[in-house]
## 1
Amino acid sequence: MRYRATVAYDGSSYFGFQRQIGDTPTVQLALEIAIARVTGQRVNVLAAGRTDTGVHATGQVIAFDVEWSKADEALLKALNANLPDDIALQDMRQQAGFHPRFDAISRTYRYRLLQTEHRQPLLRLQTWQQRSQLDETVMQQAAQIVIGEHDFASFGKPPQGENTVRHIFVSQWEQQGLAGGTLWTYTVEGNAFLQHMVRRLVGAMVKLGRGGLTLTEFDSLFRRAELMESMTMAPPQGLTLEAVRYSE
């Protein structure tokens, strides 16, 4: 049976989602160990996206194949009982032929930045914290520039192959006042993403918002479609894979 599930995790203690050589802690390895304990079967967990070291998820979608004679809810509860506290399945059901990556229409990421005069220790693993003032107007303008189908080679490398063209449906910044400062949230939805693409986009837009880059320079860099390794990359802890959308 093929099972489809949504999983949430705090990525702070993991070297990304994808399994690595040896016992390097990854989200995929933790899931496969839990499944093996519950079912006695070794599986290969598929995922909608390979999040980086330190990146979180509330809506990662996975799939795996096991033989299970009890209810789906029983499997979900048994797996959650065997998963670490920082990983938890949110739902589960059988879906024959489902592939979380190839069947996906879009993925939505959110990046959170805390503008604060003083460090906020309780938010250090969920936000990028800085004191600099930011210009919301130019950051929103830059966010609008990347909407549509473009070559995003300036902001990342493809996980496979050489195609760097992606289609972005939503790209916007929002602000929210907090006791410790101002929370900035960047929401971006696209059909697919390049490696480190969201973090590079955020890094460039924040540099723009601080005055270290002009909107014309941002646009020129974007249109050049050539990766600049020296480009500022936002740290991973502010990034969360929020949702994956499918045709249903």
Note: The chain has a mean pLDDT of 95.
## 2
Amino acid sequence: MSATLRFDNIGKVFPGVRALDGVSFEVNVGQVHGLMGENGAGKSTLLKILGGEYQPDSGRIMIDGNEVHFSSAAASIGAGIAVIHQELQYVPDLTVTENLLLGALPNRLGWVNKREARRFVRERLAAMGVDLDPNAKLGKLSIAQRQMVEICKALLRNARVIALDEPTSSLSHRETEVLFKLVHDLRADNRALIYISHRMDEIYQLCDACTIFRDGRKVASHPSLVDVKRDTIVSEMVGREISDIYNYQPRKAGEVRLAVRNVEGHPLKAPASFEVRKGEIVGFFGLVGAGRSELMHLIYGTRKKKGGEISLDGASIKVRSAGEAISRGIVLCPEDRKEEGIVAMATVSENINISCRRHYLRAGLFLNRKKEAETADSFIKLLKIKTPSRRQKIRFLSGGNQQKAILSRWLAEPDLKVVILDEPTRGIDVGAKHEIYNVIYQLAERGCAIVMISSELPEVLGVSDRIVVMRQGRISGELKRSEANEQSVLGLALPESSTTAEAA
């Protein structure tokens, strides 16, 4: 039996970078084939070739034994291919219905039948088990909800080959369960699926086979994961062994650095209070929509708070904008790097220096280009950002390397006091996570107060000195590291009405 999909010696070169080098493997019908590798290893580039966004410089794609050429995304879709990219592609001012049926809206004589479109979408979403309002505008939805729209968009095309790039990176526990069920159903329906994830549990739970990429090359393929150890996959990915990814480093916390007292604002359901000491890492956990990111934006000044007090080193402060926060040594690395983080048309160096360059001005007017170059190069080396040079446009980097550049932007600030990290390792490979955790520990050793939001419970448990849990817009509890485990944290995170059912 021929493979449904085969990549045969695929190569792709960008200026200064060989993104793919002789990649060959196949995906059969009724199979979920995992792709793993570090950021910049070439996984997303391969999917963009499959989706018609890029054309390969060498090699060929075979479907059912026949060579195919995709000169555009439309050509790929027409051949029954659906690619769900890590970086979401949607129109924020259009509704869920309009985004899902974009290019295929039901019409008569050129007039769109909106009622029919909404009915069709409502029925299909219900059949998939997805709870979304067909009339809601995408720009008003959470990142997780937008992610589900992208997934549903691909499924509505009834594609026979479906590729998913980090599909759960923004999803809640319940939404992830819905996705897993959809993947199992698609496999049972004899679709061929490619699944990219940095989450090892997902690969072992969902995938029948797995291929490992490193530096644009295929370094290993496992036709079955039954007898493959996790340490083996990690070492194949990064080229070295990582015995403990979190490598927790205990330290003695100092005086209270950041104190938040009774802060109120949309969409919080109750006043929020917590504190972080010098050298302390406080993890914030909760289901998607619990209000963690929104609380941090109220503190950071990018959302208007209705009440409460914020103190820094014992002194009450007013923070009405991100600029005021940064000037006081408070920085925030946002969850949505595409919308709130990177400046897509700027270089890697400009993205790293965009905040701290105010310290490099000569006579208050002229930029010190030499100092900016030194800063960029030092962080490219420190965080191992894969880029041909600091002059490369950041939009050409992988999502994980973009995330590292954003983190570098705040690490470059000379007088950091509070660092708020919102999903700092979302979409980042295991080796890069290990490096970022070590940077977080170094910041804590310097006396910075660290707030880390993460939807990955093992990460929160592995890195934090103390854990604050939010549920439905309010802080539901706080746990010392010695008290925290999956059961105790989830017990505080899950809605009371569902705690028993979820635990069962």
Note: Confidence is low (pLDDT under 50) at residues 497-504.
## 3
Amino acid sequence: MNKILRDLTAKKSRLVIGLLSGTSVDSVDAVLVKISGHGTNTVIKILDFASQVIPENIRLSVFRNSDAKSARIDEICRLNVIIGAIFADAVLKILKRNGLGASQVDLIGSHGQTIHHLPDRKAFHGYMVKSTMQIGDPSIIANLTSITTIGDFRIADCSVGGDGAPLVPYLDYILFSDSKLSRGLLNIGGISNITVIPRKSKKENVIAFDTGPGNMIIDGMMYHLFRKKYDKNGSTAKKGKVNAGLFSFLLADDVYQLFPPKSTGREHYGREFQKKLLARSKGMNKNDVIRTVTEFTAYTIWFNYSYFIKPVTKIDELIVSGGGTRNPVLMDVLRTYFKGVKVSVINKYGINAKNKEAVLFAVLANECISGISTNMTTVTGSGRDVILGKICQGAAL
């Protein structure tokens, strides 16, 4: 082990930047965090958070290359470098606004940008394979910022039979376990995922999985019908009503009904799903379409809780994070479905709905350098615990 890594592993606390670009591909979220300890002894202090818009041409190129029918290997190869450079730029900007030099930051933890996620085990050339691919190579970020970068967190779990997702349950477990309350931690990003932590929980008692769509279908239909990126403040859904026929059509989707462990993504709820939805909703009131897909998103979350979680653990509190918290219609529908459960937006340890997932990757980087395994076998279905992340050292200044 060289001196840089040896010194890093010996530190009691570290200054870390967490980076994330989600399934909406609208921005890079960067959080600056001081982290002390590791595992269940982790203490975090959030120092700053910033988002950097991803150029629209890059955003659309990521969407196009996430679809097997339109993807091009040469474009994916170039996007891998471009996304890394965009992430690095987000780091440099948060350093500048905090008056920090690269040498003052210990680590970067980067999720990268998911380009394809294939959690179902399939036979391929004599191998049974689960796989996932995130672009924005961490070595590019490391060398453009001169900060040791840890990324590509999902693939190690796939190598031992796991889905590689979701990853956020680890953060939920170490920060939100409670001796008296059973909690559900719901993240509504492009995809919705839920973590359930029973009171007095141990790591092996945690339940977590993707429930189905989050903002992905709402955002997709807003783009197709209104040429807008998302339903700002739920204003379009507020004008509409649930269309019973379209809602029944959506209920026939089988992915949200699968038994956990499970994960999903744009491969299912992206372009092809939305094309079928557009065809089915042709001639309908556009506001009604948005209201209906908003209802469906909330319903799939409630369905998964009712059928797969509640029989085992009845939660006292549902704490929600992610972009979906900024849609009051979606939140109101959730509260209607989860009657009797306290539903609130996350706000603890300085973690809020905007920064939570970026904090996750800062924490995962800290755990990796500490030699701590962070996949959860009961969550991803993996065969054993593994250390997640690849360590890439930056060039010396």
Note: The longest strand covers residues 113-124.
## 4
Amino acid sequence: MTRLTRWSAAELAARIHAQDITAVDVARAHLDRIAAVDPALHAFLHLDGEVALAAAAAVDDGLRRGNPPASPLAGVPLALKDVFTTVDMPTTCGSRMLQGWQPPYDATVTRRLREAGVVIVGKTNMDEFAMGSSTENSAYGPTRNPWDLDRVPGGSGGGSAAAVAAFEVPLAVGTDTGGSIRQPSAVTGTVGVKPTYGGVSRYGLVAFSSSLDQGGPVARTVLDAALLHEVIGGYDPLDSTSIDAPVPPVVQAARAGAAGDLTGVRVGVVTQFSGDGYQPGVLRAFEVAVSRLRELGAEIVEVSCPSFNHALPAYYLIAPSECSSNLARFDGMRYGLRVGDDGSRSAEEVMSLTREAGFGPEVKRRIMLGTYALSAGYYDAYYGQAQKVRTLILRDFAAAFERVDVLVSPTTPTTAFRIGERVDDPLAMYLSDLCTIPANLAGNAALSVPAGLSDDDGLPVGLQVMAPALADDRAYRVAAAYEVARDGADGGPLAQRVPDLEVIGR
């Protein structure tokens, strides 16, 4: 592993823009790292070194001509979750249904990254159509956790988190519907952010659950995540759910938080996120994290949000209902996979055969759940009731934020579980998202920052920081202050303790 793959995105960008190093050299170093370790990890579904090197060369050429960098991250390599459309690479969503599909347009996030001079090296693995908590539901095989190759990297964005944790790239973009950025970040020791719903455009993001899906950053430091947030965030008229408001000052907040002073900040500890089902080592790491926040000057307040206890069942009615509608477009008629079209079958038969062959078990399970919840006679009893619970969760958040500035909890109840351990137990799999789902249902901002290693098994634990809608900067300030305190107490960044995969990669 070279020094170029060890540096943060902020440091790489500063050196590229000062022309101390070239963006091409940085891109080559990361492509070499991917070649060395990705056969063991399987974080990527698609790589395009030529496109990446051409984008890097364009950044270098502009700098040599005296042009200012297009953004603070110009020249920095990035991996993109394979749910965002890209004109120069396939977009499969981890599904056979879209195997080899080449989109005719870029997602807004993709376009903004290109305009910012960010070097997209490839597309990362994911649970099929973002449905899962382990990246085992990908039609193209599971991704492995860099901390322990026998364990999952979380999901659905396990490929993005694993790529960042393994130093294949310094940055990635994921999506978070019920925790699919934060949960993988927690179990891989990375920083993952779910911005306020509507804060990052969903145009060109292949929809799973339209009222919940949200793109966001994955990084190794809070500042890197903030820099990426400012690149991809902002109003987009192509997305009807996009918020017409400035991006919160997240970079400024991250820099301010790094000063390590939280005097006057009120931090609420959610009492519902503890007890049975939580790994003891996770709870102990969380208690240490809260103690560090108190040492930084924060006022710690216990906060009860009783409706959070009902968030998981409400989510697993709302999200499948929306997915049953969104995935109806994958019918074998317009694009993607088509099965049985030999001239002897009706269109309905071709559709049925295509969906049977193209969708995996978890996607089928959620489509059936959602279709049932929306069916005549059951709509009010299931989907309607779930939406009422959603309102109660919004009220709990509103009441909590009258008392405190941010809320904190463990990001996940456990550390990374072993590959195959929960594939036959959907309920156990769904419980991985216990702490992350409320913020999606409410549309609030939330992030996960590494909280050290569990003393149970030596695997990463995440601290979740939740903030009100459009107050993303509050979460960044608290997380950045905590990050500095944690690194000081632990003798350096958690990322530097990831086991070296070079030998495995060969």
Note: Residues 3-259+446-499 form a domain with the Amidase signature (AS) enzymes fold (CATH 3.90.1300.10).
